[in-house]
Structures are given as C-alpha cells and as structure tokens.
Amino acid sequence: MKAYIHYAIIILLVSCSNNKEEEIEVIETGVITGTVKLFESRGGYAPDENMSVSIEGSDPVISVLTDTIGNYRFNDLPHGRYDLRFEKEGFGTFKRADIIHQNEETTIEAFEILGKKSTTEISQLQLFETETGITLLVTTSPLAHTTNIRYVRLFFNIGSEASNQIFEYFTPVLQAEFTPFIRQYTFEEFEELGFISGATIYIKAYGESLISNEYNDPNNGAFIFPNLNPNTSTSVSFVMP
C-alpha cells in the first residue's frame, strides 16, 4: 500500500509539472527603430528632435521622442502588427500603418519626411468659364510672389460642396508664385477624371505645405491632409457642358 501511494504521488507531481510547462507562453519581443526628417511649411530644415512617436491604440500609451537627428527607438515590443502616430507642436499629425514587427530588430527603412502646418490662407477663389474649360484665380494671404512662394491644394466634388473631406478628386501640392495664382482646366480634362456632362462641379482651395504629410487612414482608407490651413474662402462651381 505504501508503495502504491508513493508511485501515485510521483505521477501527480509529474502531471502538475507538465501542466505548468504547457501554461507557460513565451512572448517574443524586439526593437523597432526609425527616423524622421522635419521641414518648415515652405521648405527649409526644422529641428528633428522631440517629435512624439507613439503606438496607435496602446493603453497606456507607449511613446518615445526623436533625438537630435530624428531617430526614434521602441524597446521590448512584442512581435506583431503596429500603427505609428507622429506628433509635434506646429506639425500636422501623421500616421504610418502596417508595421510588421517579427524580428529581434525591425528597422523602418523609409524616412518619414514631415512638414509643418500651412500658414497660407485662401482669401478669395474665383472661377471664369471659357468655351473649352475654366480658369481659376486663387488669392492667398500672405500674397504669393516669386520671393514669397505659397502652396495650394484644390478639391473637386460632384453635386455638393467640396472640402478636404468630401471630394471626388484632389490635386497635388500646387506652387503659387504670383497673385492671383491662375490654374486652367479644360472640359476634356474633367471628362478624363470621370466628371460627366450636366454635373455640377464644386471646387475648394486650401493653403497647403510644401511637404503635406498626407496619408491614408489605416482604419478606413480615407485620405487625410493634416497640414491644410482651414481658413479659406467659399467653394465655386460650374456645370459640365
């Protein structure tokens, strides 16, 4: 009987030991590193340090600051997928999605080149129709000049007011060297963009930065323009012939 009890105790201890080993889950961690380069709204270098880089959705927030040459580093991050959020006073918030972290060190090769928010306002937007298209006249504040270059972005929408959130098409960053800034489009160009005859096309202009920080929202895929100046004039419109 004593021998039986002895063997039973050994079996129980071995069983408990195996269960504990099965419950231990090894979490692999590593380092994420990257670099940002910061610029003024109309070009020229800005100090690279003290930009906050955080793990989107982390609670409590996991955040680090860039050093004097723009480098940042996250230590001991569990392997997985991450979205990064970049913030600094005077700069529009930027996000970088789908960082796959599965190594001892994950280095983000592409530099984040980010600019400050635009200081350019749009004081007036005018539209004139011609036989073949339209001419837009954009007046900026401060006034655009060859020695005071300003940057502008246009948004186009069908059937309702255009904005940086409601649009069918948007232009690249446009460089304004004169006042007013003149931009011409043919009706043929609008057709190529998918705008059909009889449609009312609304157009809105915003002051923009040379480096715009635009990105696709990782949650819904929408285009985000963090550096636009919200102080702008009303939309203009025309009907496609």
How do the strands and helices of this protein lay out in sequence?
Elements: H1 2-23, E1 29-39, E2 52-55, E3 63-65, E4 71-78, E5 80-87, E6 94-101, E7 105-107, E8 112-115, E9 121-129, E10 133-141, E11 150-158, E12 169-170, E13 174-176, E14 181-186, H2 187-192, E15 200-207, E16 215-216, E17 223-224, E18 236-239
Parallel strand pairs: 1-7, 1-8
Antiparallel strand pairs: 1-4, 2-3, 2-5, 5-6, 9-10, 10-14, 11-12, 11-13, 11-15, 15-18, 16-17
Q: What's the Cα radius of gyration? A: 28 Å
Number of strands: 18
Beta-strand share of residues: 35-45%
Q: Provide the helix percentage.
A: 10-25%
Shape: elongated
Which sheet architecture does the biggest sheet show? 5 strands, antiparallel
- Which residue ranges are poorly predicted, with pLDDT under 50 across at least 5 consecutive positions? 1-17
Q: CATH class of the largest domain, anyone?
A: Mainly Beta
CATH fold type of the largest domain: Immunoglobulin-like
What would CATH call the architecture of the largest domain?
Answer: Sandwich
Count of all domains: 2
**Count of DSSP helices?**
2
How far apart the termini lie comes to 103 Å
> Structural class of the secondary structure composition?
mainly beta
Secondary-structure element series: HEEEEEEEEEEEEEEHEEEE
What can you tell me about this protein's structure?
By secondary structure, the protein is mainly beta. The protein folds into two domains: 29-115, Sandwich (Immunoglobulin-like); 121-239, Immunoglobulin-like. The protein contains two helices and 18 strands. The strands form five sheets. Strands 11, 12, 13, 15 and 18 form a five-stranded antiparallel sheet that branches. Strand 5 and strand 6 form a beta hairpin. The longest helix is centred in the first third of the chain and has 22 residues, at 2-23. The protein is elongated, with a radius of gyration of 28 Å. The termini are far apart. The model is unreliable at 1-17 (pLDDT under 50).
